Amino acid sequence: MKLVTFTESATTRIGLLRGDQIIDLSQVATTLPTDMLTFLQQGDTAMLTAAQHRDAEAQFELADVVIEAPLARPPKILAIGLNYRAHAEESNMEIPKYPVVFTKQGTSANGPYAPIHSPEETNLLDYEGELAVIIGKRCRRVSKADASQVIAGFCVLNDVSVREWQFLATPPQFTMGKSWDTHNPYGPAIVTPDEVDPHNLMLRTYVNGDLRQETSTDDLIFNCYEIIEFLSTAFTLEPGDVIATGTPSGVGAAMQPPATLQVGDTVRVTIEGLGAIENVVIAEPDTAVIS
Q1: CATH top-level class for 2-67?
Q2: Domain 77-283 belongs to what topology?
Q3: Which is nearest to 134 in space by CA: 202, 52, 184, 70?
Q4: Quick check: 190 and 134 in contact, CB under 8 A?
């Protein structure tokens, strides 16, 4: 299944993506919740109910709705650095012995086709196309042999990065550099594990149509199951948690000369079997708020 969060007639709910059509689960499976987090928290029961309607008559064409981030505010966004061999090499860093873990704040979550904000504090805004894992079951100390049981599905993700804050600040501010609002576009759907082999998918990232990243997920240093085992050793993973598994070589900051993102650029990340996300970079609007 391809589970989506979509907005139609100013109402946001969940559905199934089938080709260019949307099956509105609020119409065909009225016992299900209408938000993705609650749906995932209901576990196998909700998944099985949704699966019973994958062949139902569609209510909407894709062009008639807005596809949103699968979860507007994931409980946690966890990310892995230096997890492709070629990317570690282009960064002049050793192959890690353990996963390099950092977090992105939940407020960085962004829709698969929504704008990315370029703040005035950066001239080194960068892209990182990644495979994302969505956790479907509350779990702790999961072995890699059992890790597939706790995965709800997979998404395409762009780990947008402010490189000045990530690397050049004194001391480096990894969390700040990775957590600006809008800097975690992902989606377009949560594709359930029965649909894809996460460790044999082609990932490509384009900037203004120019191919920047191209690799297979079989080059991951730590695969999805090993990452889940490692993370769940320390803390509980919960339904709706997003794990970004790392980016391959080809990031803008590593190019000679650097080719980071500019206002007006369009970034497209595709992963076979999962679809594509595409985001335009805009100048950050006035986002000051006290409420």
Answers
A1: mainly beta
A2: Fumarylacetoacetate hydrolase; domain 2 (3.90.850)
A3: 70
A4: yes
Look over the chain and give the mean of its residue pLDDT values, rounded to a whole number. Answer: 95
In contact, 103 and 78? CB cutoff 8 Å: yes
pLDDT in tens, 156-165: 999 999 998 8
5 — phi, psi (to 5°)?
Answer: -105, 130
- Nearest residue to 271 (alpha-carbon basis) of 223, 193, 219, 217: 217
The residues, ordered by sequence, that sit 6+ positions from 2 with a Cβ below 8 Å of its Cβ are 16, 17, 18, 189, 190, 191, 192, 195, 275
Q: Give the confidence band of 169 by pLDDT, cuts at 50, 70, 90.
A: low
The answer to whether the 2-67 and 77-283 domains have the same CATH topology is: no
- Residue 168's pLDDT band, with cuts at 50, 70 and 90, is confident
Q: Do 260 and 124 touch, CB atoms closer than 8 A?
A: yes
Q: What's the longest Cα–Cα distance across the chain?
A: 57
Tell me the domain boundaries of the chain: 2-67, 77-283
The model carries a pTM of 0.96
3-state secondary structure of 271: strand
Rounded CA separation 120/5 (Å): 31
